[in-house]
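User: Here's a chain of 454 residues. Predict its fold as tokens.
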Amino acid sequence: MESAQAEKAGGAEPTAPPSRAGAVPSRRPLWALAAGWVATRTLIVLMVAGVLRIADTDVTTDISVIYHSWYEVLRTGTFPLDDVTWQYPPGAALVILAPGLLPWSYLVSFFVICGVVDAAAMALLMRAGVRKGRSYLGGWYWVAGVPLLGPTVYCRYDIIVTALAVAGLLVMLRRPAVSGLLLGLGGMVKVWPLLALIGSPRGRRTRRAWTSAVASAAALGFLLTAGMNGAFEFLKFQSERGIEIESVGALPLHFAKLAGAWDGTVTMNYGSVEFLGPWVPVISKVMVGLSVAGFGWLLVWRLRAARWTSATTFDAALCALLVFTATSRVISPQYMIWVVGLAAVCLTVRGTSQRPVAVLVLFTAVLTTMEFPIMFGAVNRSELGGVLVLTARNLLLVVTTVVSAHRLWRSTRRREALTTVVLPAEQVAPQYPVRPGIAYEQDLLDDLTPADRA
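Assistant: Prediction complete.
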């Protein structure tokens, strides 16, 4: 009987003792979190301003040269049709145009926007930590994880996209339509936020979130297509890309070049430094095949998941992003900003299965900063030191992805059947009926305000 009830409930996680999982966290750590954020972001500002230098590579040139040149074209009402470095969905135009609305130089205005968005993401994670059954660990993770990526975080617009994804995920359970709206907008800026929908709770929340995401993405795409010329020209550039030198697929080419067994070229191609020549088409197909296999596994996981909690929504989003990143033909250093953001969201839930994954992500972030910008010249020339650091980063990223998938699968598999012990009638204590599924429903209700429940 107990086994049947557990199966009918979808194998929901048992509720934790009220003294721990049900308790509302103290608000005292909020001041410490705010102070930590100010201190670490001061270090980032000093790095982007050139006061503190960790490498000779100037990472601000992407803003002052590439982004600013796109801005000059976009403000005329057209996308950069003749610039193959424009590799982004049309919504990215809004981000590139935004610094022009501020009174400072384009470079300074971009830094200001990144700082404001970073602070907004921090505030959302802190607010999530205040909720019943939640944790401030996600906020602490954002405080510590972002600066590990060095000045790159404020010199690319990926932190803006990450903040959209963080906001969309954090409201998924309470406001699925709003979540879909945010993730759909994020998808039109840089496709990956749509991956967060893979973990949307089954039933009504999934329908609302997915419908809202499609509607918002379609609406923004239509408006930009109607208002500007060449909104989707970037798609034809994607099909002609090679293998970016920092990707997992580039490792065989680096070692072949070290051994003198590869005679291709390394050049700036479609906005990134890529390998072109022998073996590249084959490796590209293999990486695409791995991406398809990874997302096929995610589909199987979703169909077979037997247990679902609020943590599952966030854990699945992180796992999907890791699969996308590890199997991509391009792994730019700013991609790790995405992963740090979603790992922070996972850690706002005490029952997350991804804690070991979050630790591995921090080590991956450190190695990412070592290979770019600190040792990027050595990586670019396929020198032994640079290749070894890149290999360590990429292999750790693959391990992190596998661990994430394994823990996600285990956390949602069906529990073993419970053993029923029949006691004599005189030993049976008075019982009160408990409706099956109450543990799962209570887990979701913990995220709702009284207005949400009404």
